[in-house]
Design a protein that fits this description.
Pfam families: Na_sulph_symp. Keywords: Membrane, Transmembrane, Transmembrane helix. The protein is mainly α. It has 23 helices and no strands. The longest helix is centred in the last third of the chain and has 34 residues. The radius of gyration is 23 Å and the shape is globular. The protein starts with a helix and ends with a helix.
């Protein structure tokens, strides 16, 4: 056990050193087109990725170490890819801490505390018992219930982190203990299955609606600013609906077979849940307060464009109201270790993801990929672009960072390949952004929340992400692209 730990601990460092030194085999400091600073940063990022896969220590600590190394070497800030740039220590540490001012990071952090309110007041347990009493005869039915809740909220709440943290996660977090399933004991009994349903269903609904996640409209905004026509809400839904709905229906089912729970459900479970629900008695004042606060949050999330209130601001308002109503105490807030751990982890990952663009590594990728695709048959080039664009999610800690860093680059590539319609190409690339967030435990807003439950550890999360990502992407390529092409030309989308 000790030997395995040290291997996992040293492997990321050794890989980073190997990647950094590898160009010297050909007598150069870095690949042609990259500065040594950019290559050094890429080496640190590769090391970080392997560390998150092996997980020898807490992912938050791994990410913090990576940021610290980058700050020490002064690579990561804007223009730090230029070896002649004079990056000050102040600029370097300001970049290193920049992720902690990211609104998505705070939204995820707040979601953990909102979940605590559901748990502490007993509202989560009450909701969970009711759901189990209705659907507890089948664990598969429970999976579909979780997916349906997220699907109903997705068109109105443009944050999968808010949907999961405010509604779905507290329910799952209350159901699992009822079956003696916890991260430490019997995680596969039911908890791990429900957690994977939660994250995968949320990823699918993030693609199904333009407002399913914030990166979707952000991507269209960037594309539009680059002179390419984009679809509206209805056009997006029509383009993705057949594949999105199919994946939505398929997800709980394939999870049931690929990552099955030990508990399959029974009449006894449903009857027990019904009795337990009745034994709870009348709803308490704390639960009523929590319901009111949740409704206020839901109204503000759904009507964010009308009220001009950011989703993260809404989450913070809910925290203040929860504290004022004494559904949680300030000590509860301070002692929520999972929330603070995730805050550090995701804040550092957002910083590291931004550094790839800052040092020029993504521009280098775009230049080389574009030149290699110019002479490729357009349909094949489109498929390669979809695959490459999707796999880039491994390098990003949020959908927003991913869109910000890559979409403009792929607009340039789409314009450079003869025979491709740039508007169609960018629509095909953007539609799967939501469900390809399933690849990693840091790729989309809700992932750290579900991963932070610790029901599914890092290596297994990455493995499941790769399997489901491959299934989703294959179905989209085989069935989705032909449909998007057909509907694009028929309705003159874009």
């Amino acid at each position: 056990m000790q030997k395995s730990f040290y291997i996992k601990l040293l492997a990321p460092f050794l890989l980073g050193i190997f990647v950094f030194l590898s160009p010297r085999i050909w007598g150069v400091e870095a690949p042609d087109g990259l500065s040594i600073n950019a290559w050094l940063y890429f080496s640190i990022f590769v090391s970080l990725t392997l560390g998150l896969i092996l997980e020898p220590v807490s992912p938050a600590l791994i990410s913090l170490v990576a940021v610290t190394i980058a700050v020490v070497f002064k690579v990561g800030p804007v223009k730090s890819g230029d070896i002649n740039a004079n990056i000050s220590s102040a600029a370097s540490i300001n970049w290193g801490l920049s992720g902690f001012s990211n609104s998505v990071v705070w939204l995820i952090f707040a979601a953990f505390t909102i979940g605590l309110g559901f748990s502490k007041t007993g509202l989560g347990k009450r909701l969970a018992l009711y759901i189990v009493s209705k659907l507890g005869r089948s664990t598969l039915g429970l999976g579909y219930a979780i997916a349906i809740v997220d699907g109903i909220l997705a068109p109105f709440i443009p944050s999968n982190a808010a949907r999961s943290g405010g509604t779905v996660y507290p329910i799952v977090n209350s159901i699992a203990p009822m079956f003696d399933s916890s991260p430490q004991n019997n995680p596969r009994k039911i908890g791990a299955y429900l957690v994977w349903i939660g994250v995968s269903a949320s990823c699918v609904t993030s693609s199904l609606f333009l407002t399913g996640q914030a990166p979707n409209p952000l991507a269209l905004s960037i594309i539009s600013k680059n002179g390419i026509g984009v679809v509206d809400w209805l056009g997006w839904f029509i383009a993705i609906a057949p594949i999105g709905i199919f994946l939505f229906i398929l997800t709980p089912l394939i999870t049931y077979f690929i990552y099955p729970p030990e508990v399959k459900g029974s009449k006894d479970i449903a009857n027990w849940a019904k009795n337990e629900y009745e034994n709870l008695g009348a709803i308490t004042k704390a639960e009523i307060y929590m319901i009111c606060i949740a409704i206020i949050g839901l109204i503000l999330w759904v009507g964010s464009s009308f009220f001009k209130i950011n989703a993260t601001t809404t989450a913070l308002i809910m925290l203040v109201l929860m504290t004022a109503a004494k559904t949680i105490t300030w000590n509860d807030f301070l002692s929520n270790k999972q929330a603070w751990n995730t805050f550090v982890w995701f804040g550092t990952l957002v910083t590291m993801a931004a550094g790839l663009k800052n040092v020029g590594f993504l521009d280098y990728l775009a230049k080389n990929l574009g030149s290699n695709l110019v002479n490729i048959e357009p349909n094949f080039a489109l498929i390669l672009l979809v695959i490459f664009f999707s796999l880039l999610r491994y390098f990003f800690a949020s959908g927003t960072a991913y869109v910000t860093a890559t979409v403009a680059i792929f607009v340039t590539i789409a314009n450079a390949i003869p025979g491709l319609d740039p508007a169609l190409t960018m629509l095909v690339l953007c539609l799967p952004m939501g469900f390809m967030g399933i690849l990693t435990p840091y790729g989309t807003g809700c992932s750290p929340l579900w991963f932070g439950s610790h029901f599914i550890l890092g290596p297994k999360f990455f493995a499941l992400g790769a399997i489901f990502g491959a299934i989703y992407l294959l179905i989209f390529i085989v069935l989705g692209i032909p449909w998007v092409k057909f509907i694009f030309s028929t309705l003159n989308l874009g």
